[in-house]
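[job 4417] fold queue: 2 targets
>>> target A
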Amino acid sequence: MTFVIDQFTSPDNITLRYALSSPPNAQHYVLVLQGRGEYVERYQETTEDLAERGLGCVTFDFRGHGGSTRATNDRTMGYVADVAQYATDVRRVMDHVKHTHGVECELVLTHSTGGLVAMGMMLDQPDLWQSAVMIAPFFGLGGPDWISLAAQFISASLCRYGFDKQYLPGQSKLSPLSAFDPQNILTSDPVRYARNVAILENTPDLVVGGVSAGWLDACFKAQASLSDRVEQMKSGALSLPPITMTLAGNDQVVSNSVTEEMFGSLPNITIREIPEARHEILQERDLYRDQFWKIFDDHIERCALRSQ
């Protein structure tokens, strides 16, 4: 199997770094939409898991992340002005791999922020992908309601006064290079955590640190818009493709209750939960990853991909 990393510059002068996995037996391809702070190397193990299932894979670094164009002078700041820009990145990458490599992705696999991006795109174009699998989608901020309300107020206020490219309070010193803390909210697996730290130590330009006001405000606005659109669709015709949402039972980053309230009653959507798993299920211990891949395999069996 090959895992090729390359990049291209889009017409709007954004450099997007992507990876393509093309196992010899691949008859279908999966597009992986990453979460905040991620980069293609984090998904090499995932591409190997997909290859075992006869699936090729495309993934890429969103703008402001990994090796793609950064939007601020501080390279470690996670920033985007509008989540719609992420959707533009998705379309650019899909067009590029189709015309350059002859690859079209029938299934989208998302993590966290990637789920927010993909859902908005599917509401615009329900036939964009045949089906979707979402891991810990970021439809609402985790924790008590007052934390989310406070974060919305602070991020919106900073943006209103031109401080969108500033870290939120307490975020400026956060780093993914920190030593493994057994109580961290992302993964209970020290081995995979250390592997990702080693990647960043060897390639420090990939590092994304704390959350900026602009990034969080953009996500809150996208979430509010998504909520409104879903409510409108509940009273009308709904034509979303089959979607399986996999929630981490011990997720302290995103809100599982928001996901369940927003999508739990909709047709074509299956919600599963992996008890005790933390937010980054694909970076978790095998105990939790194996459960996810069983959910994934059930989805594939239920929503068989059509031949190209």
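>>> target B
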Amino acid sequence: MKLNKFTKLAALSAAFVGTSAFAASNDALLDLLVKKGVLTDSEATAVAAELKEENKGVTFSAKGSDTVKLRFNGRMHFQYDSLDAEYGDGMDAPSTNHFYFRRLRLGAKATHSSGIFAETVVDFAENDLSIDKAVAGYKFNDAFTGSVGYQKVPFGFQETTSSSKIKTIERSAANRFFADDIDFAGRHTGLHAKGDLGAGFSYAAALVNAAQGEGSRLLGESNTDNDIAYFGRLQWESNGFTLGADAGHQSNNSKIGGFNNVTAYTGYVNYKFEGFDILGEYFHGDLDDLEDVDGYSVRVAYKIGKFEPVFRYSTLNSNMFEIDADELIRRAPKEGSSIKGTGNEIDSYYLGLNYYHNKAVSFMVGYEFAEAENDQGDEYDVDGVRARLQILW
């Protein structure tokens, strides 16, 4: 028995050593290819990332002749919010002041040797267990990966960037309007596709249920929402520069009256160089009878060692649709937060500092101030501090 355990331990150690040696040899080979001019630095980085991804997970036998590589992951965001608000003629709203789990996710991805993959992500942070992602698909080639299921549609650069990688604790007010306030972007169930077109260009597309949400029961009844929405993205990347445009159409949006359609687009640019990470996004939405909505955000971050100061300005202007400030500024006090009328708008300023202990552990703290108003003189101001500990595995 002891010999058996010793043999297993030796085999396991050899496997780890072999894996490390293999990784080291890959790095050395890639460095050599860069020096010889066969690969550029960016191409070598992409290959290294692909090799690293290939080495993740555990492979085992499945039904039939297939083998399956299974990879687990997780994310914990432990957060503190302290937000105060004032509305009307100097009225104070009950403040927000609490600790909570913003995200507590567990995920698993299985890739069959045949090329078929399936992935699920479950979030335990809500009162009820929620599904954040559930898809199955197949990569035919670099130009086309098709999948079916429930995931985010391609609309909004920051919205489709993982919350583990965004530079601010919460996404911008302009972003949240389309994803969280009117339930236009975000997660939908249906058909999804993406691929590389060459020369730095890529695309993504989705034909999905118009209703945002899991979609397994179409909001409870099979005939509650029979509408389909479609989204598309065209993006170009080169040397730290990303330029893209997304668009989508959704019929009979229940958040804006049930009989109004939403057509929206967003354009964005992200530039990374010498520690700087600059992002600009512009949004436009046609809300049918409720006229137009326009918004944009500009975010600048600068990495200094393990620290990263961040500043963001975001604004949203709505001709007729109300501004739900407590929705656009997540967990802001609700009382007095609805700005209804004409010429509704909100402006938000965020100043934060991030600390990256390593790639798996980071800490973020940020102060945000926002003010909402309209042509009728209604006002709502909110400000406060947020802090977050992030742990990935």
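[job 4417] complete. Note on B: The longest strand covers residues 91-112.
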